[in-house]
Write a structure and sequence with these properties.
The chain has two domains: about 5-235, 3-Layer(aba) Sandwich (Rossmann fold), CATH 3.40.50.300; about 240-345, RNA polymerase II/Efflux pump adaptor protein, barrel-sandwich hybrid domain (OB fold (Dihydrolipoamide Acetyltransferase, E2P), Beta Barrel), CATH 2.40.50.100. Helices cover about 25% and strands about 35% of the residues. The chain contains eight helices and 19 strands. About 35% of the residues are buried. The structure holds adenosine-5'-triphosphate.
């Protein structure tokens, strides 16, 4: 197990700066997830930690040691990729054991580790099968097993689930999280899927354009995003954004044109009948689509040309084309500066 510390870490490809001097301290045993849009520098950062990319500037420490110049194999870190490299001609046992190919451990210890990884990953009955006779999830587990047998001081995952179907993805998410709870190995996980980030991370690192925008627990990022980017990125469906003039508390202020109001679809409630509950935001528009999800329905509305999503509860499914009013209660609004996109306050 190990801490990982990035100090002013930079990656340049020629003149392009892909990672622009980032600082981050990852605690021993922590599960940290990097999220951000395509090209923001997540994979490059992970590959610098792994030793697969040269570091252009700054310092990378693993434990107490500066490892900038260390070869990947000297870093004692295990990486699991998106395209898990499972060899078709080898059995599961041989594939997992491949992680110990260059190790000087004796045969009995190697076998013990392979069997233990197989047991932890629920592959013990499949150790003598070849990959062709495995499901996608079982193959992915074998790839993780190969990383596990080395007893690495950290696991690095680069979008390991993006090639799996939705059902398997959610199953593997839970399996990887359970594995982490059991092994408590420091883990850095890269994804562009905010659901993976929210459900797996101890802390989420939001990246954009080679910078770190915000670091926090999933709840901190959801409740207190520093800006519009994080606010829209974390949470599904994304937070609605509206001009300040739509909101009653803004109507009296002179700066309303410079402010955008954010409200999460979950907090914007469409009801079949009006309520006299005190609200700061009341919007009326035309229903353009509905997505019934069982206990609630997502309602897409057009509000004077602005598309928003609200939630209808209590089995109320509004008709497409109908006119509907939805309201947000006090405390659920986010006020952003329209120019800087920074969060100004909550209301
Ligand atoms: N070998 C390379 N040579 C030149 N530029 C590169 C190289 N690898 C990555 N880049 C650039 O560095 C930036 C960051 O890339 P990176 O792969 O880290 O992004 P990412 O956030 O992981 O995106 P994705 O989710 O699409 O994988 C991008 O602009 C990319 O084009």
């Amino acid at each position: 197990m190990s801490t990982i510390e990035l100090t002013k870490l930079i990656k340049r490809y020629g003149k392009v700066e892909a990672v622009k001097g980032i600082d981050l301290a990852i605690a021993d045993g922590e599960f940290v997830v990097f999220v951000g849009p395509s090209g923001c520098g997540k994979s490059t950062t992970l590959r610098m930690i792994a030793g697969l990319e040269e570091i252009s500037g700054g310092t990378l420490r693993i434990g107490d040691e500066v490892v900038n110049e260390r070869e990947p194999k000297q870093r004692n870190i295990a990486m699991v990729f998106q395209n898990y490299a499972i060899y078709p001609h080898m059995t599961v046992r041989q594939n997992i054991g491949f992680g110990l190919y260059t190790s000087k451990l004796d045969k009995a210890e190697k076998n013990r580790r392979i069997e233990e990884a197989g047991r932890i990953l629920g592959l013990e009955a499949l150790l003598d099968r070849r990959p062709a006779a495995l499901s996608g999830g079982q193959r992915q587990r074998a790839a993780i097993g190969r990383a596990m047998v080395r007893n690495p001081s950290a696991f690095l995952f680069d979008e390991p689930l993006s090639n799996l179907d939705a059902q398997l993805r959610s199953q593997m998410r839970i399996e990887i999280k359970r594995l982490h709870q059991r092994l408590k190995t420091t883990t850095v996980y890269v994804t562009h899927d905010q659901v993976e980030a929210m459900t797996m991370a101890d802390r989420i690192v939001v990246m954009r354009d080679g910078h770190i925008l915000q670091v926090g627990t999933p709840t901190e990022l959801y409740e207190s995003p520093v800006d519009m980017f994080t606010a829209r990125f974390i949470g599904s469906p994304s937070m609605n954004l509206l001009p300040g003039s739509k909101c009653s508390i803004m109507a009296s202020t002179a700066t309303e044109g410079d402010i955008l109001i954010g409200v999460r679809p979950h907090d914007l409630i469409a009801r079949a009948t009006a309520t006299d509950e005190k609200t700061d935001l009341s919007l009326t528009g035309t229903v353009t689509a509905v997505e019934p999800l069982g206990p609630e329905t997502l309602v897409h509305l057009d509000i004077d040309g602005t598309a928003i999503i609200a939630t209808a509860k209590d089995k109320f499914v509004p008709a497409v084309g109908s006119t509907l009013t939805c309201t947000a209660a006090r405390g659920s609004l986010y006020l952003f500066d329209a120019k800087t996109e920074k969060l100004l306050s909550r209301s």
